[in-house]
Amino acid sequence: MSTSALTGGASVLASHRKRPGVGSRERSPHQDKLILVLRNRQRARRVNLPLLRRIVRSLLVDLLGVEGCELCVHFVAEPEMVRLNEAFLRRAGATDVITFDYGVGQASRLSPSSKLQRIRDRRDACPALHGEIFVCVDEAIRQARRFRTSWQSELVRYVVHGVLHLRGFDDRRPAVRRKMKREENRLLCLLAGRFHLSRLARKTTLHP
After folding, report:
1. Alpha-carbon dihedral 187, 192, 198, 200, rounded to 10 degrees
2. Terminus of the chain with fewer CB atoms < 10 Å: N or C?
3. Cα radius of gyration rounded to whole Å, the chain
4. Neighbours of 42 (CB within 10 A)
5. How confident is the model over 40-54, as a mean pLDDT?
6. Does a structural domain hold residue 20?
7. Judging by beta carbons within 10 Å of its beta carbon (0-12, 13-18, 19+), is residue 7 exposed, middle or buried?
8. Is residue 164 situated within a structural domain?
């Protein structure tokens, strides 16, 4: 899995803040409001976005108890993921998932001990999340073949992985990577028990 990229740049969520009744910059981060945007920009697979939205919402609200959220999840093709990986992580080639956390700007101004406490607070108290997750569908297909699973399950795994980054989990060191992987597997298993992940593949409609 990829390491999350941190940035304070503009996002798709900015346009939603400007719409009346949706939210604003002055809104309290702990306000109980869920802004969830899904964007499909790939053609490798037809994805059932309404079902995927229900899955992500269940992850956030039912399993993680997130109180408020501004999250956009992009499902992209390999060329776009290559550009993102090279531009923001300075790594060549594609990757499975990249997370942009727009909620860490305030933490960067804290002392090291305060930063650690803030991470614990975000993980345990479940305050609002604010970020974007980019998922490479081509990579999900590739990894599904490698690990003998379905691309739908891989797709959900990548979203779970990105959300865990937004909650403060890290995968840059072996010990914390194993802890994050255990939580990722646990959440994926729970979601698979609640939803038919195979139905994330939209059926092609045949016209006479």
Report:
1. -50
2. C
3. 17
4. 21
5. 97
6. no
7. middle
8. yes
In our burial notation (b when 16+ CB lie closer than 10 A, e otherwise), range 124-140 reads: eebbbbbbbbbbbbbbb
pLDDT value for 4: 54
Domain tally for the chain? 1
Quote the longest CA-to-CA distance of the chain: 66
H helices of the chain, in order, are: 13-17, 49-57, 78-88, 112-125, 137-147, 151-166, 174-194
Residue carrying structure tokens 């802004």: 35
Residue range(s) defining the domain that contains residue 46: 25-196
Residues 6+ apart with CB under 8 A from 92: 85, 86
Q: What is the DSSP string of 76-99?
A: E-HHHHHHHHHHHS---S--SEEE
- Tokens describing residue 198: 């195979």
115 in Cβ contact with 29 (< 8 Å) = no
- Rounded distance, CA 40 to CA 108, Å? 32
pLDDT digits (tens, 9 = 90+) for 90-136: 999 999 999 999 985 544 333 344 445 555 555 554 457 999 999 99
